[in-house]
Amino acid sequence: MDAVKIILAFIPLAWLLYSLGKIRMPAYKAGIIALLLTYVIAFWGFEMKTVPILQASLEGVMLALFPILWVIVSALFVYNVTVETGSMEQIKHMLSGISPDRRIQSLILAFAFGGFLEAVAGFGTAVAIPAGILAAMGFNPLLAATLCLIANTIPVAFGVLGIPIITLSQVTGLPLASLALYTAVQLIPFIVLLPFVLVFAVTGSFKNIKGVAGVSVASGAAFALGQTFTTIYMGPELAAVVGSLASLAVIVAWAKLLPVRKIWLFDGEKADFDRVNTKIDMPAAIRAWSPYLFILGIIIVMRFIPALNDYPFTLKKQFYFGPDGKPLSFQLATGAGTVLFISAVLGGLVQGASIIKISAMLMHTLKQLYKTIVTVLSIVILAKVMGYSGMTGSIASTLAAVSGRLYPLVAPLIGALGTFLTGSDTSSNVLFGNLQSQTAAQLGMSREWIAAANASGATAGKMISPQSISIATAATGLSGNEGRILSSTLKYCIIYVALMGILTLAFAFR
């Protein structure tokens, strides 16, 4: 019977892998079917009663709605406001006019600006916007898409205002501070190396790193240090924001103070210095960036109002009353979704939009996301039912028995698989975070370190996720070329996951 239970426990995950990876079924449809399979297996195979199933489902609904979907809706709302007011065009113009060197442009747009968009908006904006700008600036569309997919990895772990790590803590019950710190530490070497990888991808040769080696090291170090120290002293919410902005500031300052002596261009190109020397209108720049400035300001101010973390601004409610059930915490005032929503409204007003127009943008955002809402709801409910029914525990026991002390090698791969299937680091943490934690406990390893490896490994899966690739092809006019893009990013993903596995194994028993 134990063998039968193990097989049954794997069925929902196997279905997701097959439906999303093989037959390319839309994620919301695959998620609904996977959830129905989970219900049947939990009830008949694991003897979970109807009331506990309903309680687990209700807990999943509440966790999906707040904070996950509240963050997703608000993040896309910020982006839509910025686009509709015309401010995104001003941001594009400012960023594309810093240096004519193609290597510097890729670092600015794919690495630093893309990281910032992932940290404050997510939902594909970190791929769509930089890839579209690079293509418009003369980059080969396939190269532009590939660069942004590769770059949209390391900032994903802290996602939109830390929501992937916050969700991982809620799913596993492990301390948020430890998970955030371990994730930041695991990513440090990859952040430092990523600028060099992007330069290689742009030029096709490691020889062309000469001339931008200094700025590559500085930008990677700025991102890594900014993200890590922010995680330690402020928490995960602003980690990727500070890291990406620090990196952007370093690249811009370096390009202006220590410009590249030998400009690298694509074959047959001529450098456009007119755009580089264009002066920036500071009032217009502040208006364009205002939603993001509000995000930073509001979060910092909230840190000095501890009462916002207490009732009635923070509520606790328990939905599942079976074994391992515990209350969920809802940060109504200080949650990332609330911060993003307020910033979108205030930023829109500063940019000249009326309340009526802002309301229309919100409705448009909700219409854009209805499939995503269904997907997230089904995946989170599925994860809760699998966890409480014992299905996740069965999978963990099997993985522990098969891999033994080498399990840390595959822990990041599991995280990457989750992102490949769902397109989201947060969803990967919901799907596999508790599984990783339980497996680590059975093997006598650090639960926090292995669970963090799920979030870190999930960043690798982002570059090969069908959802991310679809966004990249749409932004660069390459619809129908998804296979070519997957082929160009897959090799980077394999190396990334392998190195992350080695790093995870090296410190799993400390």
Notable characteristics:
510 residues, mainly alpha, two-stranded antiparallel ribbon, 22 helices, 2 strands, globular
List the helices and strands and how they pair.
Blueprint: H1 2-22, H2 27-45, H3 50-84, H4 87-96, H5 102-120, H6 125-136, H7 141-151, H8 163-172, H9 176-203, H10 213-233, H11 239-257, H12 273-276, H13 282-302, E1 314-317, E2 328-331, H14 336-350, H15 355-368, H16 370-389, H17 391-403, H18 407-422, H19 425-443, H20 447-461, H21 466-476, H22 482-507
Antiparallel strand pairs: 1-2
Helix pairs in contact: 1-2, 1-17, 1-18, 2-16, 3-14, 3-15, 3-16, 4-13, 5-6, 5-7, 5-9, 5-11, 6-7, 6-21, 7-9, 7-21, 7-22, 8-9, 8-19, 9-10, 9-20, 10-11, 13-14, 16-19, 17-19, 18-19, 18-20, 18-22, 19-20, 20-22
Structure in a nutshell:
The chain has 510 residues and is mostly helical. It contains 22 helices and two strands. The chain has a domain of 167 residues.
- Determine the structural class based on helices, strands and strand pairing: mainly alpha
Oligomer: single chain
Strand content: under 5%
Helicity, as a percent range: over 70%
Order of helices and strands: HHHHHHHHHHHHHEEHHHHHHHHH
Strand order across the biggest sheet?
1-2
Instruction: Report the count of strand segments.
Output: 2
3D shape: globular
What is the residue-averaged pLDDT?
Answer: 88
Radius of gyration: 22 Å
- Termini Cα gap: 36 Å
The major sheet is characterized as: 2 strands, antiparallel
Low-confidence region ranges: none
Number of helices, counting only DSSP H or I runs of 4 residues or more: 22
